[in-house]
């Protein structure tokens, strides 16, 4: 190390690893916590898949993991719902909102825009710790009397408001609400920081139109979060009032457990409106960061500029804008005014346009590229595939006339797992493989990565594609078993197949876990810019330092996508197939791909 | 991996100067969305359920006067600081604090008035309309509590003469938040009149 | 003991994996040129796998359609269902080609443009023309889908004209059963509410209301006349349920405190459907499709569609509310 820096070996362990305010450390904390939660969510899904594939059969694994929830290794019907609810909650919020945004916004925003750190390191640290506490409470709720929340991740009242209706709506639901309130605080603190950092702390020359697409995605995601999470908080708060203080915001005309309840004048539909005002933007909060990450990786690993940078930004903005005016497509059969239904169908189908633009732009970026299949690139291509496969079925669900018959069936489960679940998780894996050297200074193992990708994508489609067929046969979601209906007798084969794929998929994730920890400790050391990428994070030293760059922050002179740029003679301008953002423009060179 | 600390650790201060205000502003946006969620809930409920009409307690009008005045005094106090008139600033900031407390007290009085009129918060006698009245005003007051705490800090620091025309950031943040609460109250008050 | 063996086994697996990985890494470094951290050979294999996957994915898709196609819902047993099924087919005709073509491009390009040291990637950063094309084409296709979809939607959602001949049925959901009430001879349903629930009056019908006297309450199954519009009114007395009748392409939530409605014209009798599906035991069902508690998975009621005469005969046998 040069003489201008001095070591701080004595720096308190506590403040370095635990209460760190450094964005790079916080990013790792989010990653590890998010993955841990995701792993728990995945184990849950494997367990209830066992029940669905082999209804009523006893399993050692179910007995082992669920204990009193499963007598003789067969889970109880209401505990099935508890598992589904917790699985959905954990996957959507803890893994793919906090885990994904928290990790990559934190890691990449300061590094890619050229800032020394987040706007407020303190709020950033707080954001992580709220997330942590919220995770802990959510997990504790699994063990309380009556079991965890069981009303589905959408917690519609009255089911979620009345312990008489399902045991999980007792203490379990209270803890769910408390955990989510803290989670929302965490998410808001994060979003504040991301927005302000991007708007105020860009380095010299880093204009908005030179921002990498990752940053655009993080920015818009954070804005969506600030606009929609507070509304979820208000919805949850009113639910807390109804549950604990006897108000009637959502409840009316209820006869349960042999008596008429005191509540009157409330409307359960109100909750659905408030919930989905967050709920739909939430799926883009989950998805956009993944799309941003992929844009970056597809371009870098194709050695080509991302095709249609401006169109990509515009479509992110358009998707975000539309996403806040489509929430009613979750409520077509609630008895809503048909005219309103028509409006929501219209706005929903419009989202297909910017989404299609993004897909076409990804594909065109591959065209005439020089593609390197790093594991990150594989997952990015996988994302484009899942985004298409899951996206096209959205045209069916978004059409109110068609949704009547498939709403709440397994078709929906297939659709959203592919378009949101798989896409986001693929984006997250891609991000980890790609930026692992930036996080840990070491490389992950490619061979394991290849196996991880191929097994995962095959099994993932094996799990979720058949679900469309179940749905088209009329099988409802959130059913403990399909064996009660003669109509669904023949579905058992499909369910069994799906379960086998789910089990293999779950085990395949161990490849990743192993690769991750092995490489973090023992992996080959990485060079400063292993992928030969243009963006700013690769100009920072491999060793993590507070403030990110020793000395001055580099100045930016061009956009992040000058790959394989050639001069009139067809020779690379820089002599190599990439030009870092910090390299000044040549005399005849234009910026931004013109 | 070794951690190297930059010799020049001043960037933290610089970042703070640059970002404290935008952070607050975006925080305010999220509070706006929170109340937007609640007030649109009111509108949805009003459209679907039986809506009981409620008499607006007169104490809310008095609250409104107090909070408007408090914004004025805070503004004057901040201005005095800008002009380096520390003595005057102290008086105005203290006045703001007192007006803020008076606002809280009149809110409480308004609730007792509501209660006397038979509008209850919860239980079999309650209606959605009445519950919203309590919920909206109480949640505003909760946010005001944050404002009061920041005012306490500001008052304390101004007593100690920690502020001057160069060093105003703390006061500016606190006053922005305070004016926001005033505006929020005015909005809620008009909204309550509208839905009553 | 089992746990101990399991732990030891896992440990052994991890250790051997670490060793294998070490060896593999040394191997990879010695073998072939490394480009951007990926060896040429690895890169070629991955490119090939792209093609293999493309084919396998389509094959899987086709296999599912072939294998499970028959398990899908039979032809729609309601009038509007025929229209929405056609709309569904039109949508398929649009999305399946999109799905296939984009996937071909995606994986074919990935294969074709795998890294080649002798080639340079083309610096192609945007093209207004292309981008315009693929904004406009989806827009046109969507316009068609939206127009068709909305006209069907409006038609389905319009309640039955009360002047016309129709059957009026109120369906009440509760944990975990359904009950139904036919409007009776006067064609009007009497008032009902949770406050009237008592003893046998499980649907909470107001005895004092004169319209309720001739209402007929049934449980277990409902009968519908073929060819006559049926107007459903839905209620719930506890949590949200959803009345889902897949064969009729019909679904509506049952919400406590709110009355919702849906209507359709049954077109195929149960007997005819037995023939169509080649299944002697076939029965139309109404099932719950909104998570509502532990036994949500088993909340059903049979629906029997029959000729008008049979229906009227059955109805005449049901007791009037006043008789209870
Ligand atoms: C290991 C892979 C996964 C498997 C096998 C799996 C399986 C399932 C199944 C079968 C259901 C439906 C259960 C039912 O309706 O009865 C479900 C629900 C759900 N899953 Fe997953 N899932 C997986 C990963 C994910 C991921 C990555 C996400 C993130 C978006 C996710 C989010 C959800 C949500 C939101 C629900 C709905 C929960 C509810 O109905 O309340 N899942 N999962
Ligand atoms: Cu949505
Ligand atoms: Cu039900």
In short, what is this structure?
Chain A has 16 helices and 5 strands. Chain A has 594 residues and is mainly alpha-helical. Chain B is built from 5 helices and 1 strand; from the N terminus they run βααααα.
Notes on the protein architecture:
- The complex is a heterotrimer of chains A (594), B (196) and C (324).
- With 594 residues, chain A is mostly helical.
- Helix content of chain A is 61%, strand content 2%.
- Chain A has one domain (22-539): Cytochrome C Oxidase, Chain A (Up-down Bundle).
- In chain A, the strands form two sheets. Chain A has a two-stranded antiparallel sheet with strand order 2-3.
- Chain B has helices at 11-48, 58-82, 86-116, 128-159, 169-195, and one strand at 4-5.
- The interface between A and B is large, with 62 and 47 residues.
- Strand 1 of chain A pairs antiparallel with strand 1 of chain B.
- The complex binds protoporphyrin IX containing FE (HEM) and copper (II) ion (CU) (2 copies).
- Protoporphyrin IX containing FE binds next to helix 2, helix 4, helix 14 and helix 16 of chain A.
Topology at a glance:
The complex is a heterotrimer of chains A (594), B (196) and C (324).
Chain A: E1 6-7, H1 13-18, H2 23-53, H3 60-66, E2 70-71, E3 74-75, H4 77-113, H5 121-140, H6 171-200, H7 213-245, E4 255-256, E5 259-260, H8 268-302, H9 309-323, H10 338-350, H11 352-366, H12 375-397, H13 400-406, H14 410-440, H15 446-472, H16 492-522
Helix pairs in contact in A: 2-4, 2-5, 2-16, 4-5, 4-6, 4-7, 4-8, 4-14, 5-6, 6-7, 7-8, 7-9, 8-9, 8-12, 8-14, 9-11, 11-12, 12-14, 12-15, 14-15, 15-16
Chain B: E1 4-5, H1 11-48, H2 58-82, H3 86-116, H4 128-159, H5 169-195
Chain C: H1 2-30, E1 34-35, E2 38-39, H2 40-68, H3 79-112, H4 128-157, E3 167-174, E4 177-182, E5 216-219, E6 221-225, E7 230-236, E8 241-245, E9 250-254, E10 260-264, H5 270-277, E11 284-288, E12 300-306, H6 308-317
Parallel strand pairs in C: 3-7, 6-12
Antiparallel strand pairs in C: 1-2, 3-4, 4-5, 7-10, 8-9, 8-11, 11-12
Helix pairs in contact in C: 2-3, 3-4
Bound molecules: protoporphyrin IX containing FE and copper (II) ion (CU) (2 copies).
